[in-house]
Amino acid sequence: MINALHLRTFIVVLRTGSFAEAARSLGYTGSAVSQQMSCLERSVKMTLFERDAHGIRPTPSAGFLAERAQDVLTAFAAFEDEVKAMSEGNFGHVRLGSFPTASQQLLPSSLSNFARTHGGIRVDLDEGEPDVLVPLLLDRDLDLAVVYHYDLVPRKWPKALQAEPLLHEELVLLLPPGHRFAGSEISLADLEKETWVATGERTSGALSLRRACAGAGFEPEVHYRSDDYDVIRRFVSTGLGVALVPALGHVRGSVASATIVDLSVRRHVVALHGPSASNPAVEGALAALRNASTETAQRLHGVHIA
């Protein structure tokens, strides 16, 4: 196998015209340069220099090799630069997962800032719920995922993954315009007779709602379900029911709301990833998520930095 170091020394020998001059230029001994050229000749299985008492003379094979060697060394230098940039987190590929409301509220500023500061890194986004994203992380199909869990639905993340809290969200009560509780401070029990709009029956959001209502002494009567908060908000706005949604999924002014004074349940947004050393670019992506989390908490009511 041809050694790139030997090729570099070979180019200097051709430029200087002797092993001794090349040695002085490179900071080697003359014998070290001679040994490198002998190793290169064995690697290419050709004589590259004719040696006599007066010095060396390149062979035609040396001229042919020199034409190709410079292109190879230029490409190898570019490769070394890319490897260095990758090890420093400035080049490569980040495969990111996120759930929909984080994709809408958290990722736009995060990804745009990351693209400006890490232009050499490609980001691919895959969207899904935590039950979908966590297995992809464990299978190394994702490098980083933004996920969530609710206070009333405890969740332990796999030990192979590192978790970094990003945000805490309050749960916002959505009411139809003109509802009797609009703008009021109420208790959760005051909503016992209401018709509810909720996420899918097996989702952690729906389970959190049932457990919170159970703590207030009733079972919520859910007539409509959707995993799209825009759909839930539209249902509420047309008077089909009330809903409890995380703050990231709430658009202020689109429906009425009220404060539930005895509800302290939160949804927590977390960044999950494997060991950062396996992909140094992940640390830069995490920094962008932290900055975007701060901006989001300042911009949205009911969203707080973890």
Record field, number of beta strands: 13
Beta-strand content: 15-25%
CATH superfamily of the domain at 169-266: Periplasmic binding protein-like II
Order of H and E elements: HHHEEHEHHEHEEEEHEHEEEHE
Helix-strand category: alpha/beta
Identify the overall geometry: rod-shaped
Question: What would you say this structure looks like, in words?
Answer:
The protein is of the alpha/beta class and 306 residues long. The strands form three sheets. Strands 3, 4, 5, 6, 7, 10, 11, 12 and 13 form a nine-stranded mixed beta sheet that branches. It is rod-shaped. The mean pLDDT is 90. Among the domains are: 4-87, Winged helix-like DNA-binding domain superfamily/Winged helix DNA-binding domain (Arc Repressor Mutant, subunit A, Orthogonal Bundle); 169-266, Periplasmic binding protein-like II (D-Maltodextrin-Binding Protein, domain 2, 3-Layer(aba) Sandwich), CATH 3.40.190.10. A hairpin with a 2-residue loop joins strand 1 (49-52) and strand 2 (55-58). It contains ten helices and 13 strands. Helix 1 crosses helix 4 (60-87), helix 2 (19-26) crosses helix 3 and helix 6 packs across helix 10 (281-299). Helix content is 42%, strand content 24%.
Concise description?
It is built from ten helices and 13 strands.
SSE arrangement:
Blueprint: H1 4-16, H2 19-26, H3 30-44, E1 49-52, E2 55-58, H4 60-87, E3 92-98, H5 100-105, H6 107-117, E4 121-127, H7 130-138, E5 144-150, E6 162-175, E7 185-186, E8 195-198, H8 204-215, E9 221-225, H9 229-237, E10 243-246, E11 256-260, E12 266-273, H10 281-299, E13 303-305
Parallel strand pairs: 3-4, 3-5, 7-11, 8-9
Antiparallel strand pairs: 1-2, 5-12, 6-10, 6-11, 6-12, 6-13
Helix pairs in contact: 1-2, 1-3, 1-4, 2-3, 6-10
